[in-house]
Amino acid sequence: MAEKTINVTLKVWRQPARGAQGRFETYQAKRIPTDASFLEMLDIVNNGLERNNQDPIAFDHDCREGICGSCGAVVNGRPHGPRRATTLCQLHMREFKDGDTIVIEPWRANGFPVIKDLIVDRAAFDRIIQTGGFISVRTGQAPEAHSTPVPLKNAEEAMDAAECIGCGACVAACPNASASLFTAAKIAQLCKLPQGHPERTRRVLHMVRTMDKEGFGSCSKQYECEAACPKEIKVSNITVMNREYLRALLKADA
Amino acid sequence: MLDARIPDGPIAEKWGRHKFNLKLVNPANKRKYHIIVVGTGLAGASAAASLSEMGYRVSSFFIHDSPRRAHSIAAQGGINAAKNYQNDGDSVYRLFYDTVKGGDFRAREANVHRLAELSVNIIDQCVAQGVPFAREYGGYLANRSFGGAQVARTFYARGQTGQQLLLGAYGALMKEAARGSVKLYPRREMLDLIVVDNRATGITCRNLLTGDIEAHTADAVVLATGGYGNVYYLSTNAKASNVTATWRAHKRGAFFANPCYTQIHPTCIPVHGDYQSKLTLMSESLRNDGRIWVPRKKDDKRSPDQIPESDRYYYLEEKYPSFGNLVPRDVASRNAKAVCDEGSGVGSTGMAVYLDFRDAIQRDGKAAIEARYGNLFEMYERITAQNPYTVPMMIYPAIHYTMGGLWVDYNLMSNLPGLHVLGEANFSDHGANRLGASALMQGLADGYFVIPITIGDFLARSGPSKVKPDHPAVQDAARETRERTDRLVGLKGKRTVDEFHRELGQILWDKCGMARTAAGLKDALARIPELREQFWQEVNVVGSPGSLNQVLERAGRVADYLEFAELLCTDALHREESCGGHFREEYQTPEGEAQRNDEAFCYAAAWEFQGVGAAPVLHKEPLEFHEVHLTQRSYK
Ligand SMILES: Cc1cc2nc3c(=O)[nH]c(=O)nc-3n(C[C@H](O)[C@H](O)[C@H](O)COP(=O)(O)OP(=O)(O)OC[C@H]3O[C@@H](n4cnc5c(N)ncnc54)[C@H](O)[C@@H]3O)c2cc1C
Ligand code: FES
Question: In this complex, is the C-beta atom of A199 within 8 Å of any C-beta atom belonging to chain B?
Answer without folding.
Answer: no
